[in-house]
Amino acid sequence: MSEQFTGGQLVVKVMEEFGAKVVFGVPGGQTLYVTDPIQDVPGMRFVHTRHENGAATAADGWGRLPGEPGICLATTGPGATNLITGLGGALRDSSPVIALVFQNRLADAGRGDAQESDHELLFGSICKKYIPVRDISVLPWAMREAYRTAKTGHPGPVVVDLYRDVIENQKAPYVPADPAGYCVRPDSVASDEAIEAAARVIRASKKPMLWIGNGVKLSHAADEVTRLSKQLCAPIVCTYNAMCAVDESFENFLGARSRHGTQVTQACIEEADCVILVGSSLTAISTNRWSIAPKNVVQFDILPEQIGRQYPVAAGVVGDAKASLQKLLAALEGFAGTPEFRDEMFSRKAAWKEALLSGPIADTERTPVPPIALQRELEKSLRENTVFCVDAGNPGAWTHYTTFPKGTAYMKPVNYGNMGFALGAALGCKEASPDREVVALIGDGSLGMTLGELESIAREKLAVTVLLVNDSAFGNIKQEELFKMGEGRYIGVEFPDYDYLSVAKAFGFDGCIVTKASQIPAAMEAARKSGGPYMIEVKLDGSFTVWPEAL
Question: pLDDT class for 266, splitting at 50, 70, 90?
Fold first, then answer.
């Protein structure tokens, strides 16, 4: 008779099968039959966080970095609900995650057992797929289905709901399977007709531009984007999710268009006579709630339902971005654009940048630190191939002014805007890529929600640099209150000046306080030399506002 395994052991067997290395989570009574056998798998670890949101955002960070699903788990009820916010961020920013949640026994379902909740209702709108497992016979299929669904199409989080009977009491043999047999990502190649329609619109244009989104990252299409840009003399504008998708020193890269800026990138989108949109779902954040007005949109997306969803298109191309752009380049062979529109945009960018880097907002000796001065010095301090995890709110709102070095992996909770992202994401990224420098940029508002994850990072002995931008406020909302309600009408947005560095040191961090932006390069070097977790607390001047619109 073949060897029999509990459901919990089978969960771990299938995770080992598809190459899982780390599972993030907070254990509970219902999870023990899964967390225990993890100890017996060489190369697989359970990393416990201080809160389930930290586990979800760690899995999100892992998923965004190597592209393999990050895995997190939580017990039933309150543990499961604590995952929801982090999973929402993974869903809206297309990050592959597998979340294992646990139920009580089937016989007690609906009777009001301890911590009972309806997970299907809770997770239904916040994940790509919800898979309940009520019998061990479907458990291996459910785990493989979660892996396949998380990775294919638009990646996203999948929830596997495991009943206690299945993982504790039921047994079945393990039949190995090759992930290549159940997670097939075939080339999604656009039709010749769609490519030719796109090429006709582009050939007829005099002022084309490229507007790129997260799909360029997901399909590794940077080379095709830059080749097309060169051929057409077309400036490139990216969304927040596509920051660092192409080398930002590339000659035709104009910059990011975000909710709070910039004027030049918006002008480029609106003044172009052909917008080649690649791998962007055109969310409210990217388009100022769809107030931007592009013309003659040629849209590339892997999902047909995205084509024309937010703006009418002159041509729509369904397929993988990389493969589709390769076909487009072949169709446009011999066609060359003219540089006048591109040159005009970069002339405006030069003037914009000169204005941006003048005045108090960019003064690197000013105390407390102005936001552009911070980005100016941070730009000097970052190294190639750094992983840069940015939280929601003002710390991230100013980052599109920074030119990041080659190979930077930039990630931010863009479309869900979930505060408390950066620490967990940095934890997940450092576990996924221990040889890369990882920096978490976080405001004091988000830090207050996730302080416990400082302990998780320190306990794991991870050399993560936490760049705390501290204005003693929910700064973005405080600025919005000023803009909409007037001076002195603040409520619920201000904090005392807490000593966060001492808290970090109590958890095992080293660190320093920065009061002038010019001190940041030395602080970053000190962080590197420390060889461990390090906090740089930047005293930020919150009077410089992103409302109604930054530069």
Answer: very high
Cis amide leading into 395 (omega within 30): no
SS3 sequence of 12-58: HHHHHHCCCCEEEEECCHHHHHHHHHHCCCCCCEEEECCCHHHHHHH
Reported as a single tens digit per residue, the pLDDT across 458-493 is: 999 999 999 999 999 988 888 888 889 998 899 999
Are the C-beta atoms of residues 324 and 190 closer than 8 Å to each other? Answer: yes
Q: Given pLDDT bands bounded at 50, 70 and 90, which one contains residue 261?
A: low
Residue 122 belongs to what H/E stretch? Answer: helix 119-123
CATH superfamily of 5-173: Thiamin diphosphate (ThDP)-binding fold, Pyr/PP domains (3.40.50.970)
Contact 485, 477 (CB under 8 A): no
Strands annotated E in 37-111: 45-48, 70-74, 97-103
pLDDT tens for 292-309 read 999 999 999 999 999 999
Model confidence pLDDT, tens digit, residues 172-231: 999 999 999 999 876 788 999 999 999 999 999 999 999 999 999 999 999 999 999 999
Residue with the two structure tokens 């070095």 = 405
R_g (Cα) of the chain, nearest Å: 24
Peptide bond into 548 cis (omega under 30): yes
Q: Give me the sheet containing 387-390, strands edge to edge.
A: 409-411, 387-390, 438-443, 464-470, 534-539, 510-514
Amino acid in the structure at residue 317:
V
Strands 236-238 and 171-172: unpaired
Q: How many Å separate Cα 139 from the centre of its chain?
A: 29
Whether the predicted pLDDT of 1 surpasses 70: no
Q: What is d(CA 517, CA 538) in angstroms, rounded to the nearest whole number? A: 8
Give residue for tokens 């592959």. 96
How far is 124 from 341, CA to CA, in rounded Å? 46
Among the four given CATH numbers 3.40.50.1220, 3.40.50.2300, 3.30.70.60, 3.40.1050.10, the one describing domain 192-348: 3.40.50.1220
Q: What is the share, in percent, of the chain residues with pLDDT greater than 90?
A: 85
Residue recorded with tokens 């041509």: 315
